[in-house]
Amino acid sequence: MSHQPISLLLCALxxxxxxxxxxxxxxxxxxxxxxxxxxxxxxxxxxxxxTTYYLEVFPxxxxxxxxxxxxxxxxxxxxxxxALVSSELLETGRQIGNGLVSTSHTLVITSSSRALTTAEKxxxxxxxxxxxxxxxxxxxxxRAHHVLDMAQLTREAGTVVSAVMxxxxxxxxxLPFARADYEAVVGAGGHAQASLRGFALAFxxxxxQREQARWVAQVMGDDDEAPANTPATPAALLxxxxxxxxxxxxxxxxxxxxxxNAAYGQRYLDRLQRVLAAERAGDPAGxxxxxxxxxxxxxxxxxxxxDDIVRVAELKxxxxxxxxxxxEVKAKDADLLRVFDxxxxxxxxxxxxxxxxxxxxxxxxxxxxxxxxxxxxxLPLKVSSHGVFGLLALRALAATKRLRPAGSRFxxxxxxxxxxxxxxxxxxxxxxxxxxxLAQCGRLIKGYGSTNERGKDNLLHIxxxxxxxxxxxxxxxxxxxxxxxxxxxxxxxxEHGAPARPxxxxxxxxxxxxxxxxxxxxx
Length: 523
Hints:
The chain is of the alpha/beta class. The protein has helices spanning 18-32, 89-97, 118-122, 131-140, 150-157, 161-172, 179-186, 192-221, 235-238, 246-259, 262-282, 291-304, 309-316, 319-328, 347-352, 356-371, 388-399, 408-430, 432-440, 449-465, 470-482, 487-495; strands at 6-12, 36-41, 51-57, 83-86, 107-111, 144-148, 340-343, 381-384. The protein is built from 22 helices and eight strands. The protein starts with 5 loop residues before the first strand and ends in a 28-residue tail after the last helix.
């Protein structure tokens, strides 16, 4: 008999239900009348090695074998794997690196979501691995592939990722089972409704991808047929920019507009056009692929949409946030859910919304408190966002975003942004690589409070003293991201002839310990 078993390798992290997925597949095969066998190799831990499950299914029903039984293997053979199904993108890349897949034989189904490794989490800056090379690896080393955000589908369904993986595999058409066979097995277990929801979401997502692929193949084979229902793009806004930048510019403009208003979104575009003009002056041929403008577009959007108390209130008052909370706690329609939000705004948060003159008076008053040994002033608040009055309070605060441009924080942030952009423009005109390195310094701006202030101080010190060398800027930026205390940054600055950052005075407050009692003196 020329038929060979269909071989699958399933990869899941700890707690994701890989064993359940394997049992579902074996039970589905038996339910449909096919022979199957599964083995597993347990991983060491959640991120030092996923648990892998190897499954073989004979594609001929048992009823047609005349009493004969197929012989299955216990482990996958390099280059002979029919399908690799993984719940995590980096794990998919690791299995491809093991040589198990082939461009002529293997279907790869993977999630675009990531479970960050410990090394990625420990980085001071954005330590995540770039997803683009991993996705390219999937495309280059598979005969076909389906990439979907399994984590998002899992959250939407309120289930575990194993149900989503099963739905994706079922929709791929690799196995000779009907959808009803899968649903009959999944519906017979515990938490059946949630599992079926996850199965259906993934099944529909992969089915849509396959339909789109068929449509593209049809269009490519018929030059006279034009795509229908082409999505409209904001051509008037994106026209000044190269086509390669349209994706990132559109996202940044949408973020700035949503954060404030259409005029603020236009300010974002105007700033980017200045950087683009400077980059074209320094790199007329576009040899760098407009890398400086792309990096600026990313970090400029994040900086212009800085976090303040108004932004926090706006996010917490959204209906989508209430729905997300109900999904996360798995509250049913009849369940009563109470949500309390805790705030502790201090003098800087209130001063941020005041004009400059009043803001300086509030900050000066708070500084006098701290210099006298008192703690910085703060107002603890507990808001019941599930109630009418609490929600109205949040929305009233969110509505004050119209007053944000009149506040001192807004003016300060815009001035700092302009200093950074001016340095990027000068660098891009002088040297394409220098402009790119200065644009990447935007990633130093992150977080809130003291973390945000420290990032801005580091960035401005770099652009003020190291704008003559791309290598110096790159090394200083990496040093700032690697060491929160700033020791490495100061050392790098001095190595390149720049002054170290000025030392900021920090008040020291002594606290009385009531547990310590004076020793009793002898009578």
